[in-house]
UniProtKB/TrEMBL annotation:
Keyword entries, A-Z: Hydrolase, TPR repeat
Protein name: Alpha/beta hydrolase-fold protein
Species annotation: Flavobacterium cupriresistens
Listed GO MF terms: hydrolase activity
A Pfam family it matches: Esterase
Taxonomic lineage: Bacteria, Pseudomonadati, Bacteroidota, Flavobacteriia, Flavobacteriales
UniProt repeat feature TPR, residue ranges: 379-412
The UniProt record lists the keyword Cytoplasm: no
UniProt record similarity statement: Belongs to the esterase D family.
Keyword Hydrolase found: yes
Recorded superkingdom: Bacteria
Length: 424
């Protein structure tokens, strides 16, 4: 049921197919939540960590579909974002653009968990490092090496907390930049199954005089990383007179950062680990500017399978063949994500009405009944099915389904009026 597109008298409905194409976009085109004349992109939550002996705040963004009324509740993959206090707003906007705006399906809708820092030098360094000028100062050296405790916090406390409180699906992505990228590589190497996909952005692989890099390569040689994805983004941190060829033979300490990442890429690029891997060098981006574009490219790489590619003609002239294509797409998405992804209720609902207006009653009935089967707790699915029966003159089934709506939601929009009209 969409009040903006369907009247209650289906015998007189005359809606152009082009309107439905617009509706398919409109139902996915509202963004950040608005409340009290303020735009909100998330909320602040917190969990006390026994592992770290401190309270940890987390920033939470939920997809817009969690705010739809009358629809069944969905479960969503989760994106965990290191340095959340820095990158949360940009990644939220990016995710909404890729998964919700203008009908985009470049990424699945995802819950975003931004993890602000309390002691970055402690948590995001996987091992202790002695003083190593100019990068590791005395203060950093003294606090370094808490990465394994931080990993334990993620695994034993934060992830279970998020799973218990929010509608999560069993697919997780971890994103980190600089020391955060170092942490991404540590968790990928030593806690591989904790996440399904990883984005390491200009990671500090020089850490501890490259000893961590050597240990990472040695450990990954023994792992089969099938079904694990990694995107490695690299910034241009070289002087203007240097390039990727020259820097390989450079010994200046200031090029150690990029040389270490290039060494890591050499190792990962041989494909022996079966890792789903992509590397990209950003010639025109610095260490500070690279997170935005690398996050975008990383998400596009990891979720390349998620885009539903329908031509405008297929959307405008929807039929059984087009729907079969959609069903096969979601089978593929389910395979990649590792759990069954049910066809979205709102999408099937829209195509059901499109079929109804096009007088393809067989397909319309099939779609509305499918939604009831897939989402039996949704009042919307029964209301739509009742609309279908009413449009086809089946008063008995229309009444039964409108009554079912009201048992699930006594205030569901328009249903009372439609039921009362039929019972007169």
């Amino acid at each position: 049921m969409y009040k903006s597109m369907i009247t209650t008298d289906f015998a007189t409905v005359k809606i152009k197919k082009t309107l439905f194409f617009g509706v398919l976009i409109l139902i996915t085109s509202f963004g950040f939540a608005q409340k009290n004349n303020k735009i909100e992109i998330g909320t602040v939550d917190s969990v006390f960590s026994k592992v770290l002996n401190e309270n940890r705040k987390v920033l939470i963004h939920l997809p817009k579909s969690t705010r739809l009324t009358g629809f069944s509740k969905q479960k969503y993959p989760v994106l965990y974002l290191l340095d959340g206090d820095v990158h949360f707003s940009s990644v939220v906007g990016m995710m909404e653009q890729l998964s919700e705006m203008n009908g985009n399906t470049l990424c699945p809708e995802m819950i975003i968990v931004g993890i602000p820092n309390t002691n970055r030098g402690r948590d995001l360094t996987p091992t202790h490092s002695d003083i190593d000028p100019p990068f590791v100062t005395k203060d950093l050296s003294e606090q370094s090496g808490g990465g394994e405790k931080f990993a334990a916090f993620l695994e034993k406390e934060l992830i279970p907390f998020i799973d218990s409180k929010y509608p999560t699906a069993p697919y997780r992505t971890l994103i980190g930049h600089s020391f955060g990228g170092l942490t991404v590589m540590n968790i990928l190497t030593n806690h591989t199954a904790l996440f399904n996909s990883y984005i390491a952005i200009d990671p500090s692989m020089w850490w501890d005089r490259q000893n961590f890099l050597k240990e990472t390569e040695a450990k990954l040689r023994t792992k089969d990383l099938v079904n694990t994805s990694l995107f490695l983004g690299v910034a241009n941190t070289m002087d203007e007179n240097m390039n990727l060829v020259k820097v390989r033979n450079d010994t200046n300490v200031m090029t150690k950062h990029i040389r270490s990442i290039l060494d890591l890429n050499d190792f990962l690029g041989d494909k022996k680990t079966h890792l789903n891997y992509q590397y990209k060098y950003y010639k025109d981006d610095s260490h500070g500017s690279v997170p935005l574009i690398a996050t975008y490219d990383g998400l596009r790489f990891i979720f390349a399978f998620n885009q539903l590619k329908l031509t405008i003609g297929e959307q405008m002239n929807f039929n059984k063949a087009v729907f079969s294509k959609i069903e096969k797409h979601y089978e593929l998405v389910s395979k990649h994500l590792g759990y069954k992804v049910t066809l979205p209720e709102a999408m099937v609902n829209s195509y059901g009405y499109q079929s109804l207006v096009s007088k393809n009653n067989e397909l319309a009935g099939y779609l509305f009944k499918m939604n009831v089967t897939n989402y039996p707790e949704s009042p919307n699915t029964y209301d739509s099915l009742a609309d279908f029966y009413e449009a086809n003159g089946d008063k008995k089934n229309a009444v039964a389904n409108y009554q079912k709506v009201l048992t699930l939601d006594k205030d569901f929009p328009e249903t009372k009026d439609k039921l009362e009209r039929l019972l007169k």
